[in-house]
Amino acid sequence: MEEIEQLEHELEKVKKQRQETPHHVEWDELAAEDQFQRLAPSRKRLMDTVKLIAYRAETALTRIVREVLARDDDTRSLVRDLFRSEADLSPDTKAGVLTISVHSMANSRSNRAIDHLLGELNAAELTYPCTNLKLVYTLVQAETRPV
Q1: Which end of the chain is more exposed for a tag (fewer CB within 10 A), N or C?
Q2: What is the side-by-side order of every strand in the sheet holding 97-103?
Q3: Which residues of 35-62 are buried (b: 16+ CB within 10 A; e: fewer)?
């Protein structure tokens, strides 16, 4: 019992000490070795711009997927899953084509939505930057094995 009371007393001391500790530390109060190098404003603007462009691209892809999915809540997560999924790149410089073969998703509903998205991307006839390779997207369906 004494040990428990002692530990409770120490806990109260630590809680009081924590409450008295300032929540924010001013930059000038940091020791020189603890001060980190801040991003230059131009670098921060560049990083923010790249993040904004990536978010807008994701949102545009989400709108295309939303055309075929019944539940709007699933679209953004499905697009994120697409970004994480595996794909095979097959360049054909003679034909001027870069084929991106996206591997099958978890279920047929997702595959239909991704297939619709890839069809829209193919219809846009995009080229890979700084090349003359036309991007062609395909969805690789999982092979069905006889049981």
Answers
A1: C
A2: 87-92, 97-103, 134-140
A3: eeeeeeeeeeeeeeeeeeeeeeeeeebb
Please name every residue paired with 90 in a beta bridge, in sequence order, or none if there are none: 99
pTM to 2 decimals? 0.64
Structure tokens at 43: 């670098």
Q: Which residue has the higher pLDDT, 88 or 29?
A: 88
How far apart CA 119 and CA 102 sit, in angstroms, is: 12
Secondary structure E strands in 19-141: 87-92, 97-103, 134-140
Strands 87-92 and 97-103: antiparallel
Label residue 24 exposed, middle or buried (CB < 10 Å: 0-12, 13-18, 19+): exposed
Distance CA 100, CA 87 (A): 6
Residues forming a β-bridge with 88: 101
pLDDT at residue 30, as a whole number? 80
Distance (Å) of CA 35 to CA 28, 29, 42, 130: 9, 9, 20, 41
